[in-house]
Amino acid sequence: MHYQVLKNFITERVRKNDIFVPTAILFLVKNEGKGTKKEISRLAYIFDYKFDLEHYDTIIDKLVSTILEDYNIIKKDGESYTLTTWPLKEREIEDIINLCAKVSNGFFSLSNHGKKQIIKEHTT
Fold first, then answer.
1. Which one of 14, 53, 91, 105 has the lowest number of neighbouring Cβ atoms within 10 Å?
2. 3-class SS of residue 76
3. What is the signed CA dihedral for 31, 20, 65, 103, rounded to 10 degrees?
4. Residue of 21, 55, 26 whose CA lies nearest to 122
């Protein structure tokens, strides 16, 4: 059930070529359903790197978290976010990652996205 909710949200609600919502979902599914605004915005910065870090903090806080909260994909507690669709199985996580890449028009790709540390190392 959790997987289907998240899958439907990505395929039916996320705009094509959006990078910020899929980036947030990617981070959260790779980090056991939890993350902070700063962690997610750092990942967005790594993928996009057109603006200063504070700009990405604002995008994640004002736009992305609002969208995800409105669709009941996350619960927000201050600057911490938790997926309401957690837990997911490993194959479901891989499918969600692929869906996020597809909806973002392949904007991000991680050659070894099976390893949690790839995202963690670049966002701390």
1. 91
2. strand
3. -80
4. 26
